[in-house]
Each structure stands twice: as C-alpha cells, then as structure tokens.
Amino acid sequence: MPVHSRRRGSSRGKILDLIRSTGPVSRVELSEMTGLTQATVSTSVRDLLRDGLVSETGRGESTGGKPRTTLEINPASRLGIGLHIGRDYTTYIVADLAGTVIGRLRVPGVGDAEPEPAVARMASDVDQLLTGLDVDRSAVVGIGVATPGPINRDAGAIMGAPALAHWTGFPIAATLSRATGFDCTFDNDATAAAIGEFWLGATGDYNTYASVYMGAGIGVGIVIDGTIYHGKQANVGELGHITVDAMGPTCSCGNVGCVELFAGPRSVIDAARAAVERGELEMEFTGTITTDLARIADLAVHGDATASALFTRSAEYLAAAVVSMVNLIDVQLVVLAGSAFQTVGSLYARTIAERLDERAFARAVQRVDVRMSVNGTDAAALGAATLVLQDTLSPRSLASITLA
Amino acid sequence: MPVHSRRRGSSRGKILDLIRSTGPVSRVELSEMTGLTQATVSTSVRDLLRDGLVSETGRGESTGGKPRTTLEINPASRLGIGLHIGRDYTTYIVADLAGTVIGRLRVPGVGDAEPEPAVARMASDVDQLLTGLDVDRSAVVGIGVATPGPINRDAGAIMGAPALAHWTGFPIAATLSRATGFDCTFDNDATAAAIGEFWLGATGDYNTYASVYMGAGIGVGIVIDGTIYHGKQANVGELGHITVDAMGPTCSCGNVGCVELFAGPRSVIDAARAAVERGELEMEFTGTITTDLARIADLAVHGDATASALFTRSAEYLAAAVVSMVNLIDVQLVVLAGSAFQTVGSLYARTIAERLDERAFARAVQRVDVRMSVNGTDAAALGAATLVLQDTLSPRSLASITLA
Fold first, then answer.
1. How many CB pairs under 8 A join A and B?
2. Do B323 and A255 count as a contact with CB atoms less than 8 A apart?
3. Are B203 and B161 contacting, i.e. CB atoms less than 8 angstroms apart?
C-alpha cells in the first residue's frame, strides 16, 4: 500500500496522469486544467519531482511574463510487471510509466499443475526476467496478475474457473507477493486485455468500448467513458456465459445455453473431432486448446470447407452475444483480442460487424466499430502491467483527467 | 443552459449535492469532505445562498473555537417536472430538490396520436398541473422527458421504437420546450426509472444496480458506482432485445430471438389469445397492453393454471436474460419496476432470484439481491423529474460526492 493518504495520493495521481498524457506542461496549465489551486498543484509537483516520477524539462511558451518551466513524465522511474496466467500459456510483460514494453516472456501455461509449485515457478520466472533486463528493481511498483474468472479480487484468487477448477480459493496474489517481495494486484484477464488495448492504441479516440477476449474461454473487458468497469467483484464481462439458447444444454458454469457452448474454442474443437470421426475432416489433435484451434484455423484459411463451416457457426453465435451486449451497454467499439482470433480473426470481425449493422437496436442512431487487437496475445499481460502502473497514476481511470 | 461555467457549475453542484445528502453541515466540514480549499467552498456557498438553494440553519457542534454555522438544502427552491410518455399511459410528476413528489398526474398515453398535437396536449397538461399545485413557476428548472428507446438523446427524439414508430425523429424535447418555456432533458424510460428507484429508496445501500423496467416492452436502467450509465447515446439497457434463442424468430427490432418475443407483455397476451381460441382460457381483450396484461395477471393470481403458466414461461425467459446481464455487468441488485410487474411481480422476483442463485457465474463469490420497486408505475416519471434537478446538483452522479 502507498504510504501517502488516499486523498493526497489521488490528486497527486491525477496531476501525474495529466503530465503523462499531455506532456510538457506547466504548473499554471495544470492548475487551469484541473481547477485545483496553484498551491495544491505546486505541492503535488514537488512530491512528484522528489520521487523522480517527473522531471522539469525546458520552458513552455511565455504569455508575456517570465517563461514557465514545463514538466514531463520520467518513464523509467517506475516499472510494472504484468503476468497473464493461462492454462496453455503464461505471459510476462515489463512496462514502463509510458506504457512501453521493455521486457516480455512467454512460457507454457499452468495446465494441470498444482498452484503452490506453479506460483513458485512464476516467482522464479519474474526474477530471471528482471535479471535478464538488468533493470533497477526498486523501480518496480508491483505485479499485475490477470487470470480467467470468476475471481475474488480482494482475496487475489480464482473462484471456480472451469479451466482452472483446482486453483479455486488459492491465494495467488498473496503467495506471489511473498515469493517476490512485490505488491500484487489481481484482475480478470478480459478486463486486463481491455486496458492493454487502450495502451496499445487499438481503441483510438473511442473511450467507451468492449474488448472481447477469446483464449480458451470467452470474456469481455468493458471500458466506460475512459474508466475500467470492474463491477462489484471484478466478475464483469463473462460474455461466454450469456445465454443464447434459453432451452439449451447446461454449461459447466451452471447456466444454460451459454454462447461458449456454441462459439467457444472447445466447442469448435469438439465439432472438429466429430467431423474427423465422420470422415469429413483430416487432422490430428494435441489436446491443447490453443494448438488444436490453430490447426483447425489453418485448414479453414487454406480452403477446407468443413473447417470453415465450424468457424462460421462459431462467429454467428458469438455475433449474437455481441449484439446482445451492445444492446445492453451501448459501446462505440468492439475490439477482438486473444489467441483464438489469431488466424481467423477477420472472419469473426466481418461477421460481428455485419450482424451489428443489421441487428443492433440503435443502428439507426450510431454504427458500432469492430477492430482486431493490435497485439491480441499480449494484451492481457500488458494490461496487467499497466494496471499496477495505473495505481501509481490515477486509480481506475485510463484517460487524462478532468476534475469535473 | 445554466449561465455559470461548466467547471464552476460542477464544483458548486458537488457542494450542493453534499449539503443535500449529508446536511446540516458546516463550511469547514464541506472543505474536509471535498478536499477543496475553504476559500473555494465559501465562494460556492455564497452563490448557493444568493440563489436560495441552501439556507444557513443553526449552529453545528463546536470543536473548541467559535460555533460553526451549518447549511441545509432549501427543498422548495427548485422543482423538476418529470414526464413519462407511454403508449398506454403518460405520467407527470413534480418533485422538489429533496426528491419529494409534490404533484402527480396520470392520463391516457399517446396511442396512435400524431406527435404534434400530442405534445401540444402535454404542454397543456403541464400547465394545468402547475396551476392546480399553485407553485412558484420560476422555481421550475425544467422538464425531464422519459420515453421508450431507442432515442437520440441530443436531438430529444425517439428513433424507431417499435411501440411508437410514427414518432421517429420528431423533436419532442424542442417542441415541448417551445410550448412550455421550460428547458427539457431527454432520456430512456428505463434509465429514468433506475434513477427514480434511487430517490424512492428501493436501492438501499447498493450503488451498483440494474432496474428492469417492463411496461409494454422490457428495458433496464443501469447505475454503476452511484452513476447513471448512459452509454454513448443513451441507448443502453435494451434488455428486451438481447437474444435468448440465436436460431429463433426475427424481432421487429431487427435482431433474432429477442427475450421480448418470449417474455414481453405482448407475447403473454398473444399466448393468452391463443389459449382462448383453444378454449383453455376465458377472458375478453381490450387491445390495450397494460389492461389486457392486468386481466391475465388477475386470472393467474386467482388460481387459473393456464394464465399462471403464461407468466411462469415469461418469468423463466426474463430470468435467462437477467442472468446473462448479471454475468456481463456484475450488479449487486436487480429491481423490478413497471406496470407489468404490478400484479404478478412476486412470481417474477422469485423466479429471477432462484435462477441467479443457481446460474449466475459469480454466485460463489456474491449473491445478487432481487427486489420489487417501491412504486413501479411512477419510477420513470419521478426519475425524469429528478434528472432535471440532478443537473442542478451534480451532473450524472446520484450519490453524495467524494472528489476522489
């Protein structure tokens, strides 16, 4: 926990975020932009200078009087580590205060490993990554951990995620924090990916968007007016578990007719296995979701009609869920991220865009944009890294701040 | 538009909202609560006193020095008019700055009437209501208009709502403003109802909730961390048009398998007509949705198994949509409001609560509460009235303010 008080921390954070987003800026301009008194701004800036987060760099435009000293962010002064835990892959990202990736590591995921040794391994991975990068460890503000949901954010634990059922209740954040000595924050991977999209620049001028994340499952991160929407316990955005067939089969999550049963990677692989058994498709399966899905996608893009049809069906069902989501929360942009979109992302993007144009409730008022992620496989880890940096900046807000 | 600047208006608004929600409160306490300087607080308070919005009332607790003058809201200093336009009923509410209803009028809805004469009639209704109440018209800050969606909020117009298709594009807000001389704000009725629930006290300590509104259609108003979620064009919360059967029939909205086709009042009435034709149900239809639905509900609560089954089916489908919504946006509370819940609301509340307990993705982490609205038929109009008052207070924020 930061030593400064919450109130002080947050006005300081807002000023820092404003310096970061609008960069070289004077104290007077900061005062004008925030509506805070010049004395308040000066106190915060003095703290930021002392802590090395910003530097005085050059002189701004004079308005007649004496020239103004301007302030800039000092990117290397703070580093955030992002850790995206998955069944198939685990990804580490080290990012600086400007959101620039300065280190990256991708290793096999936790699979069926027990939590205790798996987390010990992660601590060792973090240590090796930092050693290899030769960075100042005192600049590291913490580790942002992103995992599939549902999670208990306060407890830093996964709570009954279908793909990681044996991790339920295990205190990941606390264990990793003890092993590494770094503070750990904890978040849903789809939420982290949505933040990553913002830092990667995929969201452009949009400040209200949904980032659909399809890895082994389907989730969505929601950003509203530039602010991450966490819900009450960060169990927001379970897009894969909205019902698209109310009279359909029961899902492993307990709900019925979930879209994941019709559109998720597992459902595509199951359908491919059935097609192989019927002799309509020729391929070998590895048992790893990401790899098997990529193999089917390869067949599809090389013209196999059976493989193609599997993705067409998946895309149609996913589009139905996305239209429902847009009708419910009225976003301007849908970003598609995650390994499942790597090969056949354009098919999904096209289908979803078409269905939104035909079926979204408010299509007469506004069009919803659909884009592929700039770097779909790293988005969650980068988002997690920026989440800990974000806590240094302004809690929960992505965009530059107006005190409004 | 208020004459004061946006920035000044908003810090003033925050102080006013804080006085309203915590009052009697001293200037020093306001300064401590907001983190604003005492000089800034004093300036805002002087403005508020001058405009009659607050009064100095008595003395607060002394902390050793001289006693502090405390401030209280002056409820009657500002009045808001709420106008909920519906096909079957149109409701008018006059509320004061404390959210107290001081006047109410309910008249037949617009049905198939042309927009121009219908809005002229509304202006005349507003005039008669104010005359009857004998209130100071200069205290009226404006009219909050709530209509079914989709809407174009900026244009103050309905855009292709199935129940009011012939109103598409008609500038309701501008026309009503010209006819009455009052400023008009414009919002989705489900959103307005969600605000009404807050002022009616139905939401208790919850600050993240969804208010499901079922009149002729099905919508939902979403409040996140005490802030109304408007989406980008206020076309949020079209719960009735989320897909519960991706292979189902096309809805009049253009989407497929919408929950409104299986759970909405129209679908219940259509099913009742079919049951009458089959000789399984005995009743007469008026052609008015609200009345016909109430008749079927009466039969159901008096033990008619066929009528009961119609609502059981409707409740099951609505529950599927609500579970999807909760999985997507992680709210703590679902409030049921609107005329359709008047007689058989408890059946819906029970079914939805049971399905949330059995099926919600994060049920292991937290339970979602389900409640009936305190005053389901007035919620949208009251919410619309408080919306214009809210603009006088702090834009878009319902709860007392922390400057964060």
1. 196
2. yes
3. no
